[in-house]
Amino acid sequence: MRDSEKLNFDNNIYNTIRRNIKKYRKEKNMTSAKLAELVDLSHDFIRQIESEKTAYNFSVDTFYKISVALEVSLDKLIQKDDNQDIS
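User: That's the sequence. What structure does it adopt?
Assistant: Structure tokens below.
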């Protein structure tokens, strides 16, 4: 990479992940309560993770457990949808 090349970061990465967790959970017809049970977290905690209003950050461990429970790779959970802006 050249010094003059600028990296394009997703400044809203948590919101991207939140949207994708919710999207893949719904595609599996899974409730947030069921996801919480699978990853051994509270239902309220999962709801906070999926909510863009609370802006609650979560650990890599939690992120990984959710990806396993949803049977979705980590890269899919961080993938920006074409309709989402990178700020």
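Residues 25 and 70 are 6 Å apart (CA to CA).
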